[in-house]
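Progress report, Aim 2. The chain analyzed during this reporting quarter is listed below.
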Amino acid sequence: MLKLRLKRGGRKGQPSYRVVVMEARSRRNGRPVENLGYYNPLSKEFLVNSDRVKLRLNQGVLPTRTVATLLKKYKVITE
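Predicted structure tokens for the chain:
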């Protein structure tokens, strides 16, 4: 089962995240199936390829609660 979730990067105290499609059972920083964008919580910068996100959601990929909240907040999806 695939999930749309965040993969952590950056250094201690300065997190940055990539929005990725990964196997649900893989570890947090494992190998992604596809990179779709990034999120920087310090500067509130959020950039994703919205066409690919919508395609993946239509294919049945489930977003995590955090990713779903971000997608709604930045108006990538409407629900």
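The longest strand covers residues 2-11. The first helix runs from residue 50 to 58. These observations will guide the mutagenesis work planned for the next reporting period.
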